[in-house]
Every structure is written in structure tokens, then in C-alpha cells.
């Protein structure tokens, strides 16, 4: 299942990169979601596989801290990314249907893609496209940076503890037991 997750998500990223028609904000989010999904699985599965094969089942405190940092951070990012994608679809669709449309023809897509609808407008939509990309990027990067900075601060503070026993206690306190 791990290999299916990794290969499937890398295939999604590859196809989006190769097809220029998929270089839209929604597929930007899907690319990031695929990368986060692979990273999240990679932060957990290798250690789990080691536990299946090894007789000793413990995790060293530093490895535990690293696993927690990545799994909690990436898990949180995945949920925020999904929320941002939903919000992006809602706001973009609302703004898009206020544009004057040149035609009433069917949209040649499997699902209602915002940029496909925007391109049917009779006015210059470059500012709309920039606004969609900028707002989506801000909504994505702000939570990511906040989570990353908080974990960097926590880990750097723990690593400043001089005694090994003190660091182990601090890491153990941060870990779920």
C-alpha cells in the first residue's frame, strides 16, 4: 500500500507537470496535496516497517521527535490544504459567475474548473487569475510557515538542554504516550 501511495501520487505530480492545460490553481493544490500525502506516509511507514522486522520496538527520542515533527506537521498541512482548496473553489466560483460571459456554451471539462469558466468571460480576466493565485498561495503558505516555525522553535529549545536525560524527558513530554 505504501508503494501504491508513493507511485500513485508521483504519477499525479508527473502528469500535472507534463500537461500544460493542468497548470491551473486547482492542479497546483492537487500537486501539493500529492507531495504532502507522500511525505506524510514516508514520515510514518518506514519506522512501522522497522518495527515489524526488528525485535526491539523502541524509538530513540530524537527519531521520535523527528517523526512527530513531520507527521503532525504534514497531517496538519494536509487538513489546511483541503480546507484552502474548498475555500478557493467557493470564493473563485462566486467571483467567476459575476463576470459577463460571452457565450452560454458547455465547459469542456470533467468538473467545473474556475479558470475554464473565467476564460469564457468577455472581459480581461488577468487580474482575476492573479487574485486567485495570490490568495490561494497566501492561504496555503501562512499556516505552513506558522507550523514549521513552531516546530523549529520547539526542537531547537529541546536541543539546547544540556543533559541527555533532560532532552529525553522533554521529547517524551512532547510525544504521545
From TrEMBL:
Cellular location(s)? Cell membrane
Q: Which Pfam families match?
A: 7tm_4
Instruction: Report the transmembrane regions from the record.
Output: 28-54, 66-87, 130-152
Keyword flag NADP = no
Domain spans labelled G-protein coupled receptors family 1 profile: 8-177
Q: Give membrane topology per the record.
A: Multi-pass membrane protein
| Predominant place of localization | membrane
Alphabetically sorted, this entry's keywords are: Cell membrane, G-protein coupled receptor, Membrane, Olfaction, Receptor, Sensory transduction, Transducer, Transmembrane, Transmembrane helix
- Annotated GO MF terms: G protein-coupled receptor activity; olfactory receptor activity
Q: Which GO terms describe its cellular component?
A: plasma membrane
The yes or no answer to whether the keyword Transmembrane helix is present is yes
The record's function comment reads: Putative odorant or sperm cell receptor.
Query: What name appears for this protein in its UniProt entry?
Result: Olfactory receptor-like protein OLF3
Give the originating organism.
Camelus dromedarius (Dromedary)
Upper lineage: Eukaryota, Metazoa, Chordata, Craniata, Vertebrata
Amino acid at each position: 500500500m505504501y508503494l501504491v501511495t508513493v507511485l500513485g501520487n508521483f504519477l499525479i505530480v508527473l502528469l500535472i507537470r507534463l500537461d500544460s492545460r493542468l497548470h491551473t490553481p486547482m492542479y497546483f493544490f492537487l500537486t501539493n496535496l500529492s507531495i504532502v500525502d507522500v511525505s506524510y506516509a514516508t514520515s510514518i511507514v518506514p519506522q512501522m516497517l522497522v518495527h515489524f522486522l526488528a525485535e526491539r520496538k523502541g524509538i530513540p527520542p530524537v527519531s521520535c521527535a523527528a517523526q512527530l515533527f513531520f507527521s503532525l506537521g504534514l497531517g496538519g498541512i494536509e487538513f489546511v490544504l483541503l480546507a484552502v482548496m474548498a475555500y478557493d473553489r467557493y470564493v473563485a466560483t462566486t467571483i467567476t459567475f459575476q463576470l459577463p460571459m460571452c457565450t452560454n456554451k458547455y465547459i469542456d471539462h470533467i468538473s467545473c474548473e474556475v479558470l475554464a469558466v473565467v476564460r469564457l468571460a468577455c472581459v480581461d480576466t488577468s487580474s482575476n487569475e492573479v487574485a486567485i493565485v495570490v490568495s490561494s498561495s497566501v492561504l496555503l503558505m501562512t499556516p505552513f510557515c506558522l507550523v514549521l516555525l513552531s516546530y523549529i522553535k520547539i526542537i531547537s529549545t529541546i536541543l539546547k538542554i544540556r543533559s541527555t536525560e533532560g532532552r529525553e524527558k522533554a521529547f517524551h513530554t512532547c510525544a504521545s504516550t
